[in-house]
Each structure stands twice: as C-alpha cells, then as structure tokens.
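Open question from group meeting: does this chain pack into something compact, or does most of it stay loose? Before anyone orders reagents, we agreed to write out a predicted structure and look at it together. Recording both the input and the output here so the notebook holds the full record.
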Amino acid sequence: MTTSNYNKVFKQLKVKPAKLQKYKKHNKPKKRSTGIALKKCKRCGRNGAHISKYKLSLCRQCFRDLAIKIGFERYN
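Structure tokens returned:
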C-alpha cells in the first residue's frame, strides 16, 4: 500500500471513528531509520540501484546521464 492510498481511505472511514483508529494503527507507513527506503536519487527520486559513493546520491540511470558533466571518464 502506498502513502497516497493510505490517505484516500480516510474519507470512507470518517463516519466510523473506531474503525478509522484501527485502520491508522495497522496500515500507516513505518518510520524508517535505515535501509533502501531512505536512500533516494536527488534527481528523479528512485530507490533502487543507488550510487552513494563520493556522496553522489544518484541512481544508476541518472549517473549515466550526468557522468561526463560531473567529470567521470568512460573507459573501453
């Protein structure tokens, strides 16, 4: 369940406060302190294939687009 879907249900459960509280308790997104969900690409916001070396904070696709501008060279 995504964050946007989590908030959409509130409109339906507004009439039933007990069920709303139970829904919030069991279905809200977890607070993350570590892991893949915290590392996001600065440019596009993707989680996967994250390059954090040299404090780049880019996904591999954005890194390929920006590598030459940043100063990386391509070796054959």
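Observations to bring back to the group:
The chain has two domains: 1-29, 40-76.
The chain is about 40% helix and 5% strand.
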